[in-house]
From TrEMBL:
E.C. numbers: 6.1.1.22
Signal peptide (from-to): none
Pfam family, one: tRNA_anti-codon
This protein's record includes keyword Ligase: yes
Name this polypeptide is given: Asparagine--tRNA ligase
Aminoacyl-transfer RNA synthetases class-II family profile domain segment(s): 132-431
Alphabetical UniProt keywords: Aminoacyl-tRNA synthetase, ATP-binding, Ligase, Nucleotide-binding, Protein biosynthesis
Biological-process GO terms, alphabetical: asparaginyl-tRNA aminoacylation
Top EC category: ligase
Gene Ontology MF terms: asparagine-tRNA ligase activity; ATP binding; nucleic acid binding
UniProt organism field: Pyrobaculum calidifontis (strain DSM 21063 / JCM 11548 / VA1)
Family statement drawn from the similarity comment of this UniProt entry: Belongs to the class-II aminoacyl-tRNA synthetase family.
Length: 431
């Protein structure tokens, strides 16, 4: 049998703490002390210290980091070793002795551009490993939440022909003899699907030709979107609170080690339980004016304003009732107060800001056509979307959640790029 087939996960070796064991992995750190070489070996589950006798394995001393190997020996409890256990090595299979590794994890942390250039390698770092595990838990928890609540998972197309979120950020794609676009949001397709399945969701990439590089914008991001028939703004906002609450609870349950490795303080996460803090746009303007922002009713709440709001409250905020002109054409206007829409955003605390955008949709065909024209758009471009309103239309609402932004906040990252394995922005399309 190939020696690596009999290896046990490093986490399992640490749990056992005694007896003979074989582990396999990559050399993560190396230190020589007198007659011994200490190799820290990592796999997907953890890190273990290998104690390698220099006399028997002279090649260990000059071994390059990230070389792959299989080691067999005896597990010994040692409080000074990471994980409290080390492996006293008796035999080694040098699977692949690597070239000098181009990343020094300690020195490189400050040079974020370099780490993006070598992202294909940097994914091996303990930090990226922790983030990728948190991402895994977040995506799993989103699917679990929707499925347990009776939502059907659906699969809208990525090639589309009409803008959902405005023409300015559409990516064009050559499509045989035509031009089509990459989707900015699956919303319109989810709106079609509620007439079949009533409660639907999807988790898929969305694309935006975002011209600016900010800490929270990518050109390709993961979008968790849902739509519910027979529902209003409040119903959608409550689902938003619940799904975030559920995801955070799951991460706190399963990913304490990773949060600790990232140095994430968890108090703000622990407070993110529904109900969130509900704040109307009108109230937000008042709060911001008191804080010294020169804002009038109708002004946009930009990134700085969002940040200031989130620092006022210790829970995520449901910011609702935006003026018509601040939100896309499909938002239903409040029949009691037509100048505002039945729309909401969810803002994450600690300065992170918007993670969800959603609301109630116009479900009357005539009202929709009028608003499309009022917004200077062409109803021809939205023919099938308008058609949905012609046959048994019902009140409905939904939202889109930026999953990378949610992971960014949960992980306490400074930049959205830090939580995506292969981030895409205006300058970066490789690796
Ligand atoms: O607020 P947005 O633009 O809303 C929509 O797309 C709706 N059609 C969704 C719906 O109702 N089904 O985007 C929703 C969320 C934002 O709150 C943000 O979290 C994320 O998507 N998002 C981005 N994340 C990363 N990079 C970008 N460029 C993003 N643009 C939006």
């Amino acid at each position: 049998m190939l020696p690596y087939k009999s290896a046990i996960p490093i986490a399992e070796a640490l749990r056992r703490g005694e007896g003979k064991a074989t582990v396999r992995g990559w050399v993560y750190r190396k230190r020589t002390l007198k007659e011994k070489v200490f190799l820290l070996l990592r796999d997907a589950t953890g890190v273990i210290q290998l104690v390698v006798p220099r006399a028997k394995f002279p090649e260990a001393e000059s071994l390059n980091l990230e070389s792959s190997l299989v080691a067999t020996g005896v597990l010994v409890r040692e409080p000074r070793a990471p994980g409290g256990v080390e492996l006293h090595v008796e035999s080694i299979d040098w699977v692949y002795v690597g070239e000098p590794y181009p990343i020094n994890e300690d020195a490189a942390v400050s040079d974020s551009e370099y780490l993006l250039d070598v992202r294909h390698l940097w994914l091996r770092s303990r930090k990226m490993q922790a983030i990728l595990k948190i991402r895994h838990t977040v995506f799993g928890a989103i699917h679990d939440y929707f499925r347990r609540r009776g939502f059907y998972e659906v699969h809208p197309p990525m090639f589309i022909t009409a803008a959902v979120e405005g023409g300015a950020t559409l990516f064009k794609v050559e499509y045989f003899d035509r031009t089509v676009y990459l989707t900015q949001s699956s919303q319109f397709y989810l709106e079609a699907l509620i007439y079949s399945l009533e409660k639907v969701y999807t988790v898929a990439p969305s694309f935006r030709a975002e011209p600016s590089r900010t800490r929270r914008h990518l050109t390709e991001f993961w979008h968790a979107e849902m739509e519910i028939a027979w529902a209003h703004m409040d119903d959608a906002a409550k689902v938003g609170e619940e799904v975030i609450g559920h995801v955070v609870e799951r991460v706190l349950d399963e990913r304490q080690d990773e949060l600790k490795l990232l140095g994430r303080k968890v108090e703000a996460l622990e407070r993110a339980k529904p109900p969130f803090h509900w704040l109307s746009y009108d109230e937000a303007i008042e709060v911001l004016r008191k804080k010294g922002f020169a804002l009038s009713w109708g002004d946009d709440i930009g990134a700085d304003e969002e940040r200031a709001l989130t620092l006022e409250f210790d829970k995520p905020i449901i910011l609702h009732g935006f003026p018509e002109k601040l939100k896309a054409f499909y938002h239903r206007n409040n029949p009691q107060r037509p100048e505002v829409t039945l729309s909401f955003d969810v803002l994450l605390p600690e300065g992170y800001g918007e993670v969800i955008g959603g609301g109630e949709r116009i479900y009357d065909a005539k009202e929709l056509v009028e608003k499309i024209i009022r917004f200077g758009l062409n109803p021809e471009d939205y023919q099938w979307y308008i058609d949905l309103r012609r046959y048994g239309s019902v009140p409905h609402a939904g939202f889109g959640l930026g999953v990378d932004r949610l992971v960014m906040w949960i992980a306490g990252a400074d930049h959205i790029r830090d939580v995506v394995p292969f981030p895409r922005d205006i300058r970066r399309t490789r690796p």
